[in-house]
Amino acid sequence: MSAPSLETVALVGNPNAGKTTLFNALTKSAAHVGNYAGVTVAVKSGEMFTAHGQKLRILDLPGCYSLRSTSPDEKIARDALMGELEGTPKPDLAICVVDASSMERQLNLVLQTIELGVPVVIALNMVDVAEKQGLRLDPAKLSEELNVPVVPIQANAGKGLVDLKQAMSHPFPPPAESPWLDGAEDPETARRDMVARLCELAARRPGEHQQTLSDKLDRFFLHPVFGWLAFILIMFSVFWAIFSFAKIPMDLISGSIGDLAKWIGTKMPEGDLHSLIVDGIIPGVGAVVVFLPQIVLLFLFIGLLESSGYMARAAYLMDGLMAKAGLSGKAFLPLFSSYACAIPGIMATRTIDSAKERLVTIFVAPWMSCSARLPVYFLLVPLLLDGKEGSWKQAAVLFGFYVLGTLSAFVVARVLRGRLGPDKQPNHFMLELPLYRGPQWSYIFRHVGDRAMAFLKKAGTLILGISIVLWALQTFPKTDSEDKGEQLAHSAIGRVGALIEPVVKPLGFDGRTGTAILTSFAARETFNTTMGVIFHVEESEDEEADRANLRDQITQATWPDGRALFTPLSVVSLLVFYVFALQCLATSAVVARESGSWKWAAGQFAFMSVFAYVASLIVYQGGHLLGLH
Ligand SMILES: Nc1nc2c(ncn2[C@@H]2O[C@H](COP(=O)(O)OP(=O)(O)OP(=O)(O)O)[C@@H](O)[C@H]2O)c(=O)[nH]1
Ligand SMILES: [Mg+2]
Fold first, then answer.
1. Rounded Cα distance, 474 and 476, in Å
2. ipTM for the complex shown
């Protein structure tokens, strides 16, 4: 029975000290770690057994620099320690996770935790890094000075965990005193003096400053000119690699889907069920699933950038640009995570102290092109270029659409930030540059695996359901006509298309594309599903045609008068629409929760939808005036 009396141990420490790594090692779980500050923004709980078989509850807290902070994630950490956080019991023991290589900055929090009167054990982490820097650590001295147990560990290699578990066994050490406060007028100064003394005694720096490899790399990656060139080159290579490496597995998947459809086609008798599977489910789900390789590659590259430590350098470079948008460097990581998915990105804004800046960041986060847009981009971008043109050109176009979303987000952030007025709270951005590290493959693979599973799960549930509904909508009501085009026009979906057409025609789309846009307000990938279902039927008169390749089918689509439906101009207009439209119910729900107001979420939705429409209109009509087509 999970008794409520289960004793609770909280992991406290500065951001990036290795708390989650330790949490995972102790509880054998796989919470997300990353080599930059602010990865954990909510309290995570797990269970473990001590050396004596005693069961403990472990809490992984968000990193914080002090216990008086104003940003939501640091407040969560403080409240959890004080037992003031709803749903989490007051910890019976706090393990202060300290990065041994930067004790000067990290011990302050340890002192504050001791002052709270909670029993404390110090886990002196990253001893490997400290050693490489030539630091001479003296854990015994530190323990003696503070009167709390100190255990040197290396969390990512599982070293020292046995000793740590021993220190966590019952009875817990008694709360330590805080003699540094005795007779002190200003606790802040008293703590600073104490930290200096402790470092002098227990963490002696080598005589001369050694230039580490990280220092050397940083001279290049943080260089005002070369740093930016490297940044652009790295990002561009990621896009290029996604386009070129994904090609082989993608052809394989789309080939198998085609074969499957053909095989079922020959095995099953004609009829509605046959049609449901061959014309509804397979093209509908298939149009999304073929992009699995791109999703996997995107998350693989994000994982590599995160764990190597490069992400923190990118934040450093972007700091100046962020300031121009009225945001601080703290907004960079939330915005960057939004390229994967806006939801964790919006959650990560909890690291931002300023409430107003946080709102603005939440507002613009969905314009960082998320991975759900990738299937749409990958379907459409190649239509702009001749299929044979190199993948670097396609990568350049894709890069361009990412830049468009990002720059527009910065402009809107600036305007909005200006309107919200100045901030009362102080806002300090302290960017730590962690050391460069080799990739941690096991975490990366697990994370990529999770993402791939989530993507497939969505395809197997939401997308599957929508495919079935779409198939029904275009099969019923039935006509007697043999002509597929007539049947489509007569069907429910054809009627919806006819209704929508006047609205989307000024943007260069017909009713079928309009229907696909409409359905993608549930989730963006549904665009492909709808296109897959509608255009599959349209073109399948020709039984010899390669049914699997949706792109070939939509290149051949025409208006009733025979003009091509997808011209470069209408494709650009469509892509622009997808860059800006907020088509994700889950994001809106998270925005409402994190901003604490439905109005904010609704306003964001309305703004982005109208913006997308107008931007697309300007592109299409403007292009026409310029004689483009
Ligand atoms: N070299 C070395 N790296 C470590 C050690 N422990 C953790 N790391 C790495 O340090 C980085 C940060 O680890 P996390 O566990 O995410 O840190 P955190 O304290 O949870 O950070 P926040 O959630 O941002 O507060 C990761 O890249 C870890 O793999 C260690 O003992 N030695
Ligand atoms: Mg963490």
1. 6
2. 0.98
Rg (CA), the chain: 28
Cβ proximity of 540 and 547 under 8 Å: yes
Closest ligand 1 atom to residue 126 Cα is 31
Which residue, judged by its Cα, is nearest atom 32 of ligand 1? 126
Residue 121 phi, psi (nearest 5): -120, 135
Q: Which ligand 1 atom minimizes the distance to the CA of 13? A: 19
Beta-carbon neighbours within 5 Å of ion ligand 2: 19-20, 39-40
Helix (H, G, I), strand (E, B) or coil at 86: coil
Rounded to the nearest 10 degrees, what angle do helices 310-324 and 213-221 cross at? 30
**Range 599-613 average pLDDT:** 96
Ligand 1 atom 11: residue of nearest CA: 35
pLDDT digits (tens, 9 = 90+) for 73-99: 788 888 888 888 888 888 999 999 999
What is the reported pTM? 0.74
Q: What are the two backbone dihedrals, phi and then psi, of residue 147, each rounded to the nearest 5 degrees?
A: 65, 35
Q: Which residues contact 472 (CB under 8 A, 6 or more apart)?
A: 280
Q: Ligand 2 centroid vs 344 CA: distance in angstroms?
A: 14
Listed range (136-145, 475-484, 604-613) with the worst mean pLDDT: 475-484
Write the DSSP assignment of 424-464 as a string of letters.
SS--------PPP----HHHHHHHHHHHHHHHHHHIIIIIH
Contact 316, 329 (CB under 8 A): yes
What is the C-alpha to C-alpha distance for residues 492 and 27, in angstroms, rounded to an integer?
A: 53
Q: CA–CA separation, 206 vs 135, rounded Å?
A: 6
- Give me the DSSP letters along 375-409: HHHHHHHHHHS-TTS-HHHHHHHHHHHHHHHHHHH
Cβ of 18 closer than 6 Å to ligand 1, yes or no, is: yes
CA of 221 to the centre of ligand 1 (A): 22
pLDDT at 5: 66
**Measured between alpha carbons, how far is residue 74 from residues 65, 71, 81, 485 in Å?**
8, 6, 11, 60
**What is the strand order of the sheet 120-125 is part of?**
44-49, 55-60, 7-13, 93-99, 120-125, 150-152
CA atoms within 13 A on the CB side of 5: 2
Report residue 544 as tokens.
């010899």
Of 427 and 390, the structure prediction assigns the larger pLDDT to 390
Query: Is the CB of residue 361 less than 8 Å from the CB of residue 326?
Result: no
Burial environment of residue 257 by CB neighbours within 10 A (0 to 12, 13 to 18, 19 or more): buried
- Residue 470 in tokens: 């779409």
Mean pLDDT (the chain) is: 86
pLDDT band at 476 (very low <50, low <70, confident <90, very high): confident
What is the spatial distance between Cα 564 and Cα 566, in angstroms, rounded to a whole number? 6
Residue 53, phi then psi, degrees to nearest 5: 75, 15
- Does the pLDDT of residue 359 top 90, yes or no? yes
CA distance 409 to 336: 12
278 CB burial (10 A radius; 0-12, 13-18, 19+):
buried
**Cβ of 15 less than 6 Å from ligand 1:** yes
Task: Report how far residue 480's alpha carbon sits from residue 478's, in angstroms, rounded to the nearest whole number.
Answer: 7
Determine contact, residues 470/280, Cβ cutoff 8 Å: yes
Cα(45) to ligand 2 centroid in Å equals: 12
